[in-house]
Amino acid sequence: MANRIVLLSAFLLVGFNLKNCEQQMDEELSFNDQDFYKLHISPKNPGSEDQILLIENTCGIEPEPILSYKGMQIIYKRYFNSLMGAPCRPTLDTTIIGPLNSGSYELVHWVIDKNHLLKDSIISVDTIAFVVTD
Q1: Per-residue DSSP letter, 60
Q2: Is 59:91 a contact under the CB 8 Å cutoff?
Q3: Within a 13 Å sphere around the CA of 93, how many CA atoms are in the beta-carbon half?
């Protein structure tokens, strides 16, 4: 029973924090319908205790992104398949990175098309530098 209460409390706390982040994101971000796969880090100036989020405008049909770490480099890969021909439903997608130690980070954002008919499936590779303070 105690485990259920702890789990429920943690779930509610994360949900409350995400709601606060959504309000903050509304104030900080403005996407238009053409800004697909544009990535933002929230908060803009994170501290070492902040819950860091990646907010991306997607078409709402992609699988979960792949997130990996190499030292102070964060690799974020988003895959889609242009062969599917599904209509695009613009959606803001949030990926939780969580708190990070203070320091300078580099986020490498890959957008990759899984269409096997393409010669080059890499649509874009962007790098975003950000600093986490104490």
Answers
A1: S
A2: yes
A3: 20
pLDDT in tens, 25-53: 444 445 454 566 778 899 999 999 999 99
When divided into structural domains, the chain yields a total of 1
Cis peptide before 43 (omega within 30 of 0): yes
Record the pTM. 0.68
Q: Distance (Å, rounded) from C-alpha 31 to C-alpha 73?
A: 26
Q: Residue 63 in contact with residue 79, Cβ under 8 Å? A: yes
Domain that holds residue 124: 2-132
Q: What are phi and psi of 33, to 5 degrees?
A: -65, -15
- Sequence-ordered strand ranges (E) for 59-118: 66-70, 73-80, 91-98, 103-113
